[in-house]
Amino acid sequence: MKTWNLASSAALLLASFPVMANPFPDADLKAAHENHEKMCIACHARKYGGEGGSDIYTRVDRRVSSPSALSQQLTACTTMLNLDLFPEDENNLAGYLNKHFYKFK
């Protein structure tokens, strides 16, 4: 009969937890940074203030509270402002914003 030791039990317990992964693993952060500078900062700074318009991302009453909400908000901005962004551009921006502001896992 095999006996379980503390290390075996801990390993089994850790293996049972879901892996915390980046919700936007394929995001091109360099391209997103350029799009953010070009398409987002001026509008956000005008409406919400902060260095580079960043207060929109960090305000207490922000709308975005999950990776899917972030993606939806980016699509809404693209549509409302008639921005020339493809879905992959929105995904890149989501990854960029997540890395620098939201930190969703």
TrEMBL record:
Annotated protein name in UniProt: Cytochrome c
Keywords, in A-Z order: Signal
One term of GO molecular function: electron transfer activity
Database matches in SUPFAM superfamilies: Cytochrome c
Signal peptide: 1-21
Keyword Chaperone: no
InterPro entries hit by this protein: Cyt_c-like_dom_sf (IPR036909)
Organism: Parazoarcus communis SWub3 = DSM 12120
